[in-house]
Amino acid sequence: MRFKIIILVLLALSLTFVGANSALAVDATANVTLSATVTSIAELTLSTATVSFPNANPGTVPNVSATENGATITAHVRTGSSTPASLSVLAADDLTSGSDVIPMTAVSSTTTNTSGTFFTTGAIPWSKTAPVTLGGGASGSYTGTVNWTLANSWSYATGNYTAAATYTLTAP
Amino acid sequence: MRKLRLFSSFFFAAVLVLGIFPGPAAPGPSGPSEVQLIVTPSNIKFRAGPPPSFSVCEVTIQVLAPVHTPWRLTVLALGPLQFGRSAIPASRVTWKGTPAPIFLDGTLSSTHPQLLARGEGPKVGVVRFLLKNSWDLAVGQFNQKFIFNLSTP
């Protein structure tokens, strides 16, 4: 009886051996290191390059709306997680018509966020001396609507006033 | 005594059987049944440009296996592409393998090995990895390791 058990054990062992060898998979591995360099980048689009204020009676229209109001502004920005992007505008000079001047602070803009939250809401007066911040935030794509307003005044001399201003989107 | 003789006979018979019919060879440095996997280069780099473009880099994969030996090749990322606390999910990386149908197209995963190729015998293919650029990617130098695993049944 004992001998039979020994034989059975040996048989089982031999089958286990053969079975284990048969089930072996032959493996080979290779490692690859992937790196991705993601750099800061910014794109700014404004649907109009000119903003014009029509003539208006200061008594009835104290704030003149620009003809281009409702323009679309789009900011695409990719920036560092601890260095938010910022949008600003800086006028090159006051509005001038010959020697007549309307101070740039009479112009203001209001931007409404339509996709994402990036633009500062509320009327923001412009300046010719320092960039005025119009918004800021993290990496992403943002869209807004812009309205411009000119504070009207009886004191303005008649004329055709012009000035240039630059919007700058910065991704540090 | 008779029992001992019987036992010895069986023992030698068992040794003989195991010696004559061994299982397939285990993986080793050499031998006719050995399979090898060569992936070059071992470092690949994406350079993310402006969205919505794709960054592309590629590897050449060489499978050395005996003729008619079937094999499967999978790829697994060890995690998301990492830079400090910023991460790009591995699933942002896709690939296109050639030649089809041996080398497949797919999307990288950091949780489950993804089938990249299957075939028989020696084969060479090219896999182009693509990272879709997006404005919401954080800025940084991201890194991660991929493991390619070749197996034969």
Can you give the helix content of chain B as a percent range? Answer: 10-25%
The largest sheet of chain B, given as strand count, sense and whether it forms a barrel, is: 5 strands, antiparallel
**Whole-number tally of structural domains of chain B:** 1
CATH class of chain B: Mainly Beta
Q: Assign the CATH topology of chain B.
A: Immunoglobulin-like
Q: Overall pLDDT of chain B, averaged?
A: 82
Number of strands of chain A: 12
Give the SSE string of chain B.
HEEEEEEEEEEE
Query: What is the oligomeric state here?
Result: heterodimer
The CATH architecture category of chain B equals Sandwich
Structure commentary:
The complex is a heterodimer of chains A (172) and B (153). By secondary structure, chain A is mainly beta. Chain A has a domain at 41-156. Helix content of chain A is 13%, strand content 45%. Chain A contains 1 helix and 12 strands, in the order αββββββββββββ. In chain A, strands 2, 3, 4, 8, 9 and 11 form a 6-stranded antiparallel β-sheet that branches. The model of chain A is unreliable at 1-24 (pLDDT under 50). Chain B has 153 residues and is mainly beta. Chain B is elongated, with a radius of gyration of 23 Å. Chain B has one domain: Immunoglobulin-like (Sandwich). The longest helix of chain B is centred in the N-terminal third of the chain and has 19 residues, at 2-20. In chain B, the strands form 3 sheets. A 5-stranded antiparallel β-sheet of chain B has the order 1-3-10-7-8, with no helix packed on it. In chain B, strands 9-4-11 form a 3-stranded antiparallel β-sheet, with no helix packed on it. In chain B, strands 5-6 form a two-stranded antiparallel sheet. Chain B has one helix at residues 2-20; strands at 36-40, 43-48, 54-64, 70-77, 81-83, 86-88, 93-98, 106-107, 114-120, 123-132, 140-152. Classes of the chains: A mainly beta (172), B mainly beta (153). At the A-B interface, α1, β1 and β4 of A face α1, β1, β2, β3 and β11 of B.
